[in-house]
Prior knowledge:
Elements: H1 2-10, E1 20-26, E2 36-40, E3 62-69, H2 75-90, E4 99-104, E5 115-122
Amino acid sequence: SAWQSFFAQxxxxxxxxxxxxxxxxxxxxxxxxxxxYVAGVLVDSNTEVPEGFASVDxxxxxxxxxxxxxxxxxxxxxxxxxxxxxxxxxxLDMRPAPHLEIYESDKEPMDxxxxxxxxxxxx
Length: 123
Protein backbone atom coordinates (compact mmCIF):
# COMPACT_ATOMS: atom_id res chain seq x y z
CA SER A 1 0.00 0.00 0.00
CA ALA A 2 1.01 3.64 -0.29
CA TRP A 3 1.28 3.90 3.50
CA GLN A 4 3.49 0.82 3.84
CA SER A 5 5.82 2.16 1.15
CA PHE A 6 5.90 5.59 2.77
CA PHE A 7 6.65 4.34 6.30
CA ALA A 8 9.24 1.88 5.04
CA GLN A 9 11.39 4.88 4.05
CA UNK A 10 10.08 7.82 6.10
CA UNK A 11 11.89 7.29 9.41
CA UNK A 12 15.32 7.02 7.76
CA UNK A 13 14.68 9.90 5.33
CA UNK A 14 15.52 13.59 5.62
CA UNK A 15 11.83 14.50 5.44
CA UNK A 16 10.70 16.70 8.35
CA UNK A 17 8.95 15.09 11.31
CA UNK A 18 5.38 16.33 11.58
CA UNK A 19 2.36 15.89 13.86
CA UNK A 20 0.16 14.96 10.91
CA UNK A 21 0.29 12.70 7.89
CA UNK A 22 -1.62 13.29 4.66
CA UNK A 23 -3.18 11.02 2.11
CA UNK A 24 -3.64 12.90 -1.17
CA UNK A 25 -6.08 11.59 -3.76
CA UNK A 26 -5.21 13.17 -7.11
CA UNK A 27 -8.14 12.98 -9.55
CA UNK A 28 -7.32 11.99 -13.10
CA UNK A 29 -8.11 14.11 -16.14
CA UNK A 30 -9.70 11.13 -17.90
CA UNK A 31 -12.35 8.62 -16.95
CA UNK A 32 -10.06 5.93 -18.41
CA UNK A 33 -7.18 6.77 -16.04
CA UNK A 34 -7.48 5.89 -12.35
CA UNK A 35 -6.85 8.47 -9.66
CA UNK A 36 -3.51 8.50 -7.86
CA TYR A 37 -3.11 8.10 -4.08
CA VAL A 38 0.00 9.42 -2.34
CA ALA A 39 0.80 9.03 1.38
CA GLY A 40 3.10 11.50 3.08
CA VAL A 41 3.81 14.61 5.09
CA LEU A 42 3.29 18.27 4.24
CA VAL A 43 6.49 20.07 3.24
CA ASP A 44 7.32 23.51 1.92
CA SER A 45 7.33 23.90 -1.85
CA ASN A 46 11.11 24.43 -1.85
CA THR A 47 11.82 21.14 0.01
CA GLU A 48 13.91 18.69 -1.99
CA VAL A 49 11.92 15.47 -2.09
CA PRO A 50 14.22 12.51 -1.39
CA GLU A 51 14.63 9.73 -3.92
CA GLY A 52 11.93 7.10 -3.57
CA PHE A 53 9.22 9.59 -2.60
CA ALA A 54 6.64 11.33 -4.79
CA SER A 55 5.58 14.96 -4.61
CA VAL A 56 2.04 16.28 -5.02
CA ASP A 57 1.29 20.00 -5.29
CA UNK A 58 -1.57 21.05 -3.01
CA UNK A 59 -2.83 24.40 -4.31
CA UNK A 60 -4.02 26.94 -1.77
CA UNK A 61 -7.78 26.99 -1.31
CA UNK A 62 -10.71 26.03 0.85
CA UNK A 63 -11.70 22.53 1.90
CA UNK A 64 -14.96 21.09 3.20
CA UNK A 65 -13.99 18.84 6.10
CA UNK A 66 -15.80 15.78 7.42
CA UNK A 67 -14.62 13.66 10.34
CA UNK A 68 -14.11 9.90 10.53
CA UNK A 69 -14.39 8.49 14.06
CA UNK A 70 -13.41 4.92 14.87
CA UNK A 71 -10.92 2.34 13.66
CA UNK A 72 -9.57 2.67 10.12
CA UNK A 73 -11.20 -0.59 9.09
CA UNK A 74 -14.58 1.21 9.38
CA UNK A 75 -13.77 4.13 7.11
CA UNK A 76 -16.06 3.24 4.15
CA UNK A 77 -19.24 4.51 5.87
CA UNK A 78 -17.46 7.78 6.74
CA UNK A 79 -16.56 8.31 3.09
CA UNK A 80 -20.13 7.51 2.06
CA UNK A 81 -21.45 10.03 4.57
CA UNK A 82 -18.88 12.71 3.66
CA UNK A 83 -19.37 12.51 -0.12
CA UNK A 84 -22.98 11.29 -0.20
CA UNK A 85 -24.63 13.28 2.61
CA UNK A 86 -22.58 16.03 4.29
CA UNK A 87 -20.89 17.52 1.22
CA UNK A 88 -24.05 17.58 -0.96
CA UNK A 89 -25.98 19.18 1.93
CA UNK A 90 -23.35 21.94 2.19
CA UNK A 91 -24.33 23.42 -1.19
CA LEU A 92 -20.66 23.96 -2.01
CA ASP A 93 -19.03 23.26 -5.37
CA MET A 94 -15.99 21.02 -5.69
CA ARG A 95 -12.87 22.52 -7.26
CA PRO A 96 -10.19 20.63 -9.16
CA ALA A 97 -7.49 19.82 -6.59
CA PRO A 98 -6.30 16.81 -4.63
CA HIS A 99 -8.71 15.47 -2.02
CA LEU A 100 -7.02 14.98 1.34
CA GLU A 101 -7.04 12.70 4.34
CA ILE A 102 -5.42 14.28 7.41
CA TYR A 103 -4.18 11.96 10.16
CA GLU A 104 -2.66 12.81 13.54
CA SER A 105 0.63 10.94 13.78
CA ASP A 106 0.40 10.16 17.51
CA LYS A 107 -2.92 8.28 17.32
CA GLU A 108 -3.43 4.53 16.95
CA PRO A 109 -5.44 3.87 13.74
CA MET A 110 -7.27 0.83 15.13
CA ASP A 111 -8.52 2.50 18.34
CA UNK A 112 -12.27 3.03 18.71
CA UNK A 113 -11.73 6.77 19.30
CA UNK A 114 -9.38 7.28 16.34
CA UNK A 115 -10.33 10.20 14.13
CA UNK A 116 -9.11 11.76 10.93
CA UNK A 117 -10.34 14.42 8.53
CA UNK A 118 -11.67 13.85 5.01
CA UNK A 119 -11.01 17.13 3.17
CA UNK A 120 -12.85 17.89 -0.08
CA UNK A 121 -11.54 20.84 -2.17
CA UNK A 122 -14.23 23.51 -2.66
CA UNK A 123 -14.60 26.92 -4.29
